[in-house]
Structures are given as C-alpha cells and as structure tokens.
Design brief:
homodimer; alpha+beta; four-stranded antiparallel β-sheet; 9 helices; 10 strands; DNA-binding
Chain lengths: ~270, ~270
DNA sequence: CGGGAGGTTGACAATCGTCAATCAGAGTGG
DNA sequence: CCACTCTGATTGACGATTGTCAACCTCCCG
C-alpha cells in the first residue's frame, strides 16, 4: 500500500518537472511560479506497483520523482509489450491526461515516488500559460518521436542491434536526466522486462547480452551493470543516432554523444 | 515535378482539417474562420513523392487533401520501417512542426494533393486560439497512441495477427475519414509497403494474406482489394480493440465497430 | 508486342522461441 | 550461521516462425 502525503514536502518537489519543461521551451518567472504552485499528492510506490491501469479513466497526471517506470500494453495471448521507459522528472501520463482514458498501463520498475497532479490543473495551466502548454506539447511530441524510433527498432533491427540501441538510448537519457554517467550504469530492469521492451524473449535477451559482451561492446560486472568501453562502437552496433531524442546541441548526424574522447552531451541544461 | 497553386482554389480546401480538429475538440465560429483563413499552398504530388525527408528542417505543415501517405524511417542496413499511414484530412506533419527538424520522412503512397501551411502560422494559431491548440494537441496524442499500438503489434503479435490488426485499423480509419465502407476497400499499398509497416518481408506478407484468405477471414478479388465478410472474426484474429484510436462513442472494449449486423461506428462526426 | 512492377510460390536457411535444467544471489526463519 | 526458498540469470537442445533466393506469373501500359 502506498503511503500518501499531500502538499509540499519541500519547496521544490515539482522542480524536476520545471527543469524538464524549461529544457523544451523558455519559461518566465510567472510560469515557473505557477508550475511550482500546482497542487499535488506524493505517492510512494513499491516495485511493480501500478500507477495507472489500461482502461482507467484518468484523474491525475503523474510526475516521476524517483525510481523508474514503464508503460506497457498487453496483447491477446497475454504477452506484454513495454512501449516506453521513464525516469525521474518525466511526466508519465501527459499522454493519457488529455485523452481522458488510459490506453496503456503505467507500472513502476523500481520502488519510487510519484507526484499526482489533478488532471484538470494540468489542463488548466497548459492553456492559461502558453509557454507551459508549448513545453508540454513538445514533451509529448518527443515521446511520440521515441515511439517511432521504437517501432523501427523492433520492426527492422535484429536482436543485437536492437538491444544495443536500447542500451544507448537508456545511457543517454540517464545522462540528460542527471542520473549518472552514460558509460556505466545499472539497468533497472530484469532481462524479461528488457525482452518485453524489445519484442524478444528473456532467453534471447540473455544470449544477446552475452554476445555483446563477447564482442567487446559492453562489459558486465554483474547481470545488471552495463559498462560501455567505447561509446562509438556500441552506437554503431546499435544503429544509434540520437536525433530522435531532440536533445539540444546534438548534431542531427551521429555524434560522440557521450563517453569516448569527445565531450559528452553538449546541451546546456540548467543543473538542479 | 509537383505543380504548385497558391491561395484558396475553393472556399473550403482546408475543410478536412477543420472537420478533423472539430472531431477532437469543440471549436467556435471564430476558431473555424481563423482556421479556414490560414494561408497555404496546394501541391500536387505524384506517387512515391516525398513530402518531407528525414533530417529536413521544417518550414511547412502538410495537410493531406487527397491520396494516402506514409511516414517512415530508414535503419542502418537500408531497410525501411513505415511508422504511420495517413489519409485525407490528416495533418501529416504536426509532429515535426513543433520540433523543427524531421526525424522521419513523409512520402506519398498514391498520387494526391497536400496543402502546405507555413509552420509559423500553425504555431501561431495553436497558441492564439486555445480550442484549436487543444484539438491539435489531442490529434498528436492520438497519433502517439497509434504508435504505441504499433509497437505492441510489431513486437508481440505473430504475422497473421499483425496483418489482421493493420487491416482492421485501416478499415476503421477509412470509415471515420468518410472514405468508404470498412468492409470492402482497396489497399493503397504494395505488399512490400505493407511488409515495411508490419516489420515483415513482402514474401511473408503475401503468404499471410493468402492464409487469411484461406481461413475465410478476408476475401480478395484482386491483390489489393480487401473484403471483410465477418468483421468480428477478423477483429478477433487481429486482436483489434479500437480503444487506442480514441474514437467517440466507441466502447472501450471490443465492439462491433463496423460491418456485421450491428450499427457501424457510432461517433457523431459532422459530415462535410 | 515487349517491358516492368508487383504478386505468388517453392526450397532452403537463419533468427529467434520454447522447454527445461542448472546456477547465483538475496531475503527469511530457525 | 545455515538450510530453505524465490526470483532472476545462464545454458543446452530442439523446434518454429520468418527471411532469403529465385523462379514464374499476371496485369498494366506504352
């Protein structure tokens, strides 16, 4: 059972949201104040806890304060497809908020906290404050861009390329979210969950990770820890071009986004 | 070479866009007037003509006036993945418009006409007129919902289910767009294009279509014509639940969306 | 009549899935 | 501290869906 807290535990619980929205579009001080003044409830979630279930009608928009979460759909034979992975600062449910009914589930990958903001407040602030609305819209468009890349990833890349691609995306997004170095991180998911994200089976994911290790593209001191020795090599193996993430200051073509000798992600993001 | 025309050829060239946006959110007469007053250029496109190429910076938002179009990405080994199919009345490029740089290509499936609306005008009207902005936002969110379903379709369904699903989606969207009966239509694409949309090969698509025919789920008087005798049977075979399309008046659970004895798509859409 | 694009089919190969056994590590209770 | 248990990771043997290659067919169009 999640323990619920209402009101501001600190002066800046919603700060991660502010930071992310500012990344997409310039906000003025009134925008910032309005954002941070949004009412919310903090919910402590256990591992695998459901934030939203497919079919639910939506009353709240969830901001991930800590931990990792996924969005998923279940198909007829009971198999699951993970359609997105989310980390701190991401608004997991802006998608469902406007539409009113969840067409997919949102579930915690790890334990963590979410801020539940009433849907009507989100909609109100988006339309009262064009800067905020624009930032939110862009945020959902980037999500959509990632979906498209995943369609291509799952539809047209083989297992090894596919997994390498996901590892690169995750690394870079961790970096952008300020959650660690892209060249060495702990995957917050089981191989079965990674399989559900890539349209493979856990057995095949295991073999593919082993193969990536044997090929020297990654090192794994334990099953979850991913160390990327040569970013460029992995990015090439994963056909990874960060353009679809629409990060600032990243060239459209494949660049040394992270690690290696070149400077890492060069976007200028206000660091908290 | 496309022949270009500027200005309003008729009083209501942009009418399909109005119709679609009104479907998502209520507009008042000022909204409608502002929409129809948008400047645009009509471009006549040949089959396979590119509307936008991946990497282009975006100056226009394209409204499909006639014909069919696709959005696609190319992966490293040269294979193509189609990530979306579009038909009359759809704004193919709202996605790219806000982001400024195309992360995918848009290409005509058939010959047709598009209205090119300057990107700045689209952005302006979206933020000057909240109703329009909201309708556009919802439109992009529904697109995103369809991407998610495609991820699940390609990642977790076998070839037969996958193709049946696409056939159902296409049928229903044709109906909603007022482009014909969902139970009998002409597919505007080759089997190779259908393969690129489903993450299969053209050979396997062919075999799967044959199998669907042999199973009595569809009839094909010619390679392109799809006749759906029993909608429910095909929808079941395709694990198709129209919820992700967010159509009005359609039950969240699988319903007799079209064909069969039950009334077809019951949404109340203003018919042009 | 000829050319070409797209559709259909067969033989065969390969990627990936299934089933099942074993192993490693974390948490629990005695 | 040590069985006990459970989840997740790893590995092998085998099978199945899907891909590849190539031939042939059909239809449309100049």
């Amino acid at each position: 059972m999640p323990d619920n807290t209402t009101g501001p535990p600190g002066p800046s619980t919603l700060e991660p949201m502010l930071r992310k929205l500012e990344y997409w579009h310039k906000l003025d001080s009134a925008d910032r104040a309005a954002l941070l003044a949004l009412p919310y409830t903090v919910k402590t979630m256990g591992q695998n806890g459901y934030v939203v279930r497919e079919g639910d009608s939506i009353a709240h928009c969830c901001l991930l304060l800590s931990g990792f979460a996924i969005r998923s759909k279940i198909v007829a034979d009971g198999h699951r497809q993970i359609v997105a992975i989310h980390m701190r600062g991401e608004m997991v449910d802006l998608q469902n908020s406007l539409l009113g009914r969840a067409d997919h589930s949102v579930q915690m990958l790890t334990a963590g906290k979410v801020a539940m903001i009433p849907r009507v407040e989100i909609v109100r602030i988006a339309f009262e404050r064009p800067n905020i609305g624009r930032a939110m819209w862009i945020d959902t468009l980037v999500d959509a861009s990632i979906f498209r890349e995943w369609v291509a990833n799952i539809g047209r890349r083989d297992a090894q390329t596919r997994i390498a691609h996901v590892l690169c995306e995750f690394a870079l997004r961790l970096k952008v979210a300020g959650l660690g170095e892209p060249t060495s991180y702990e995957l917050p998911m089981t191989q079965e969950q990674l399989a559900d994200a890539t349209g493979l089976t856990s057995v095949h994911v295991n073999r593919t990770l082993m193969a990536l290790g044997a090929a020297g593209l990654i090192e794994r001191s334990n099953p979850r820890r991913i160390v990327i020795g040569d970013w460029r090599k992995l990015a090439d193996a994963g056909d990874f071009d960060s353009g679809y993430l629409h990060l600032h200051g990243t060239e459209p073509a494949l660049a040394h986004e992270a690690g290696g000798g070149a400077p890492v992600a060069k976007f200028s993001q206000p660091v908290g």
